[in-house]
MBL fold metallo-hydrolase
Amino acid sequence: MPVRTPPTRQRRSAATIHHLDCAPLRPVGGTPLVAHCLLIATGSGLVLVDTGLGAAEVSDPRRLGTLFRRTMRPELDLSRTAVHQVRALGYDPYDVRDIVITHLDQDRAGGLADFPRARVHVMADEYRAAMRRDTRLEGNRYRPAQWAHGVDWVVHDHADSDWMGFPASRVLRAPDILLVPLPGHTRGHSAVAVQEPDRWLLHAGDAYFFHGEIDLRRPRCPRPLALHQRLVADDHDMRLGQLERLRSLCRAHPRLVRIFSSHDPVEFELMANGG
């Protein structure tokens, strides 16, 4: 079923969307980064889009792996964890019913154990990659300890919708939330589309790291970030192709879709302040 424009006024959702930074990063040789997650308060419960790092990583940083700790240098602060921020906003973490994951890298999935009752939605290719860890890169990026507590996985193995011309898998309704596959950064990497009354938000995950990469007039990226993205991509050429698709989406629907990524601090500040 095609999904293109937001619903009419009678069907608009009263969901409240909070933008959270759940893992500030201070990478070697680069500028500070964020871990942009969403908390969506709906009439039937809470939804998280990604989880950042969790309380267990703060207590035992070894769970993240040596390479990630030394290169990305995460700020391990309990107050930054999603579970702490959910409480600080006045919500009960037990009301987090669903978690929608762009991908299962350690800085996206670290907080899963803090919400053990939640259903965790992920694309099938990403689930298989994380469970098998077939390559050295996947062995470094996926940390089985982060889901060893026993996760209620909801694995989406096919697209059942069309969102703005992108194949997508519907996760929830009211508001509409869809997984939009954008493989490249990881084998099963996805964006997450979230309905607002007058537009769509598209959390593009790690499809790009710097806001200038989707600039329609002069696409650009600082060299350290460009190199990092090349090194950690499962398929760098495919990632670049997905980036071009995102630019085309910006060009076609500049007011209907607001795109942002996981790690760009400029985008995070803008969105957190109502941008």
In short: Residues 8-272 form a domain with the Metallo-beta-lactamase; Chain A fold (CATH 3.60.15.10). Residues 5-12 have pLDDT under 50 and may be disordered.
